[in-house]
Write a structure and sequence with these properties.
By secondary structure, this protein is α/β, with parallel strands linked by helices. Among the domains are: 79 residues, 2-Layer Sandwich (Histidine-containing Protein, Chain: A), CATH 3.30.1340; 112 residues, hypothetical protein tt1634; 113 residues, hypothetical protein tt1634; 170 residues, 2-Layer Sandwich (60s Ribosomal Protein L30, Chain: A), CATH 3.30.1330. The protein contains 19 helices and 25 strands.
């Protein structure tokens, strides 16, 4: 059977098509394999091992996660050099970049007598205007420079508590640098004296919040003592110092040890100061103390490098000569020794003792000064009288001194030195003799004795034989006689006991009789301005109305009282205002009388908060319990562990702190009490909240 031409043609075309298809398929596979292999090798050679390559026909798919965007583009470029770029299918991605870390927020506050400067980066949530206003009030007219930058990031944890505490610290330190960061406050400051340093350290460490770490370095420059004076004597009262100056703590111990070996007992105040004339000062002082001890009586006075050794009339001359000779030989070359052995009082031919010339100045407690005795001439008398009037007041001096031209030439200088020494006393006398000056009296300055020693040592020169019998009276001390913080608060209690600070319904304005009460409290706080204390103005309401509303109202009223005190020029750097709302009732809220008692403004010491010692005219026995932990801590300088503290129970109340600081947190007048907020948030009963909102207008008038 023969096939027709048409069938043969069809079969031929079919075979040709199949052959073409087969050839094309083989060619495509070859191209696909070679293209993928070429691209893969090129990428590996370019260190793009991260890239995945596979082919789909003529298309080359490139996938994988590139470490950077630059490496991703480089891989695509290399693939484009190996095959036609239109054949490349890009399936690559880039490793996601880590989110930008928030910046480190911090504030550096530099404060001195010239002004205050703020430098740093703060979150937008910080109320800069309020902070600057508060610092401006502290600066008291000095310039405040705000160089703070702002970043729009959430404030870090413990940032607010650190800022609040840092501002409280700044208020206490007029020359300081306060560094504030989240949860940390650093303080560098300068105090006027060691006593002020101790006071400042106690004040800033006492109220450190638990969430804040405090680093402080307060330095107290030593006083410059001129002349650098030491006076040791043995008299009828035993061995003791009239003045003691030393340059280092180690040398202080050496001098006190020498005095102890000489028989001195009790506490000795040896001042650490600047101005020591030579490094050999301590060695010389120890030799001098030993010389007086060997004589058994007398005195030795060091005024810079001038040394005066004075024995008593009964001292054995041979012993005196030996002791003086040894002291002269052993003293360093820089020191000049002047020794005095008083001669026995001479008797006249009839056996009587001739009285030596004297000058006496007496000052009574009223400030009146009488000048009696002998002076060289009329010009000297006029000079002495003018000097006394300049020292004690023109109307307080009475002169009854006579002229004696036989007096020695140094007499006027001895008289003026005695008057200068007398001016250091509240009342007393100065007796001037040719070979001796005696100062006696009472003072309110604990350092008066040392100061008188310096005055006489400097003014009398070689004739440094003097006696000082000065008594310190704390009642005359302007610092020691200041009222205590408790006494200041007692006065405020007495005022509020007569009438409480009250407000009109729904008002925070101080009006009517409350103005007079605030005026009296302002006068008390002004009289106590030098007393180191922290006061809290606490606002309280009854329980009617919503807790949040009561909290805001109590805070606003406490703020109003604080602003009223500021308007009356009361220094408020140590005063905070805190609203407690209805959280601290002192009476039953179920009765009108109880609610009236609970609506109150209290003044209390911040240090008393943990002891529950509330002040004011609304005190009752229903106050918070007294723990005494903080009082014990303050008295002993140790941490009293009263167990864990729940800081959410009472807003702004002090709480237990770490043993490092031994302090409790400062009450934050701007903080919303956690307990009150928690009570509102946790209440599942929304019907009561709706009822409260509906009754808000009616209950608000009772607050």
């Amino acid at each position: 059977m023969r096939l027709g031409p048409k069938i043969i043609s069809a079969i031929s075309l079919a075979l040709a098509a199949a052959g073409c298809w087969l050839v094309a398929t083989i060619a495509a596979d070859i191209i696909e394999t070679r293209s993928g292999k070429a691209v893969r090798i090129a990428l590996i050679e370019a260190d793009h091992d991260w890239a995945d390559v596979h082919t789909d026909g003529l298309q080359v798919h490139i996938g994988g996660i590139a470490p950077t965007e630059a490496q991703r583009f480089d891989a695509l470029h290399i693939a484009g050099t190996m095959v036609d770029a239109t054949r490349i299918v890009d399936g690559t991605t880039v490793t996601p970049s880590e989110p930008l870390a928030p910046p480190r927020f911090s504030i550096e506050i530099l404060r001195n007598d010239e002004g205050v400067t703020l430098i740093g980066l703060v979150p937008t949530s910080l109320d800069r205007a309020s902070m600057v206003n508060e610092i401006t009030a502290l600066a008291e007219g000095a310039e405040v420079t705000d160089l703070l930058e702002v970043a729009s990031y959430p404030e870090p944890r413990d940032w607010e508590s650190a800022v609040h505490f840092g501002m409280n610290v700044l208020a206490r330190l007029p020359r300081s640098k306060v560094s504030i960061s989240a949860g940390q406050v650093g303080v560098e400051a300068i105090a006027e004296s060691a006593e002020e340093k101790a006071t400042l350290e106690a004040a800033i460490t006492k109220r450190v919040p638990k969430s804040v770490s405090l680093r402080h370095n307060i330095s107290a420059p030593r006083p410059v003592i001129t002349p650098f004076t030491l006076r040791f004597l043995i008299d009828e009262s035993g061995p003791h110092f009239d003045a003691c100056s030393v340059d280092t703590a180690r040398n202080q111990g050496r001098i006190l040890e020498a005095a102890t070996q000489a028989g001195a007992t009790g506490r000795v105040n040896c001042t650490l100061g600047l101005g020591v004339p030579t490094p050999e000062w301590t060695n010389a002082a120890i030799l001098g103390i030993g010389a007086v001890a060997e004589l058994g009586a007398g005195s030795i006075t060091f005024a810079d490098a001038d040394v005066t050794l004075v024995a008593t009339e009964t001292t054995d001359p041979a012993l005196f000569d030996r002791v003086v000779g040894e002291l002269e030989s052993n003293l360093p070359d820089v020191f000049s020794l002047h020794s005095v052995l008083p001669e026995p009082t001479e008797q006249t031919e009839d056996g009587s003792i001739q009285a030596p010339p004297e000058f006496t100045a007496t000052r009574n407690p009223a400030g009146r000064v009488q000048l009696r005795g002998r002076l060289n001439n009329a010009m000297v008398r006029q000079t002495v009288e003018s000097y006394a009037k300049a020292r004690f007041g023109a109307d307080s001096v009475y002169t009854a001194a006579r002229i004696d031209e036989t007096l020695p030439e140094p007499w006027p200088m001895r008289v003026l030195a005695g008057l200068e020494a007398l001016s250091e006393l509240d009342h007393g006398s100065a007796l001037v003799k040719e070979s001796y000056v005696d100062i006696r009296g009472t003072t309110g300055n604990p350092e008066a004795k040392a100061e008188i020693s310096r005055i006489l040592a400097e003014k009398l020169g070689d004739a440094q034989n003097f006696g000082i019998n000065v008594t310190y009276d704390e009642a005359l001390d302007p610092v020691a006689s200041l009222p205590t913080p408790d006494e200041c608060l007692e006065q405020i209690r007495a005022v509020q006991a007569r009438e409480k600070i009250s407000f009109a319904p729904s008002s925070t304005d101080i009006e009517g009789a409350a103005i007079g009460i605030v005026n009296e409290i302002a006068d008390i706080l002004k009289s106590c301005k030098d007393v180191q204390m922290e006061i809290e103005i606490a606002g309280h309401t009854d329980s009617q109305g919503r807790e949040e509303m009561n909290l805001e109202l109590s805070q606003a009223r406490a703020d109003a009282v604080l602003e009223a005190l500021i308007a009356r020029r009361v220094l408020t750097s140590g005063i905070v205002s805190t609203g407690y709302g209805e959280t601290d009732p002192i009476a039953d809220n179920d009765t009108e009388e109880g609610r009236e008692e609970n609506r109150r403004i209290e003044f209390r010491l911040v240090a008393e908060e943990s002891d529950g010692l509330a002040t004011g005219g609304d005190e009752t026995d229903g106050g918070s319990e007294e723990t005494g932990a903080e009082a014990q801590e303050e008295a002993t300088g140790t941490k009293t562990d009263s167990g864990p503290s729940d800081t959410t129970e009472e807003p702004g109340a002090p709480s237990e702190v770490d043993g490092v600081t031994g302090a409790a947190p400062e009450a934050d007048p701007d903080a919303q009490p956690a307990a009150a907020e928690g009570q509102v948030a946790e209440s599942p009963d929304t019907s009561r909240e709706n009822t409260d909102e509906a009754a808000e207008d009616s209950t608000e008038d009772t607050q």
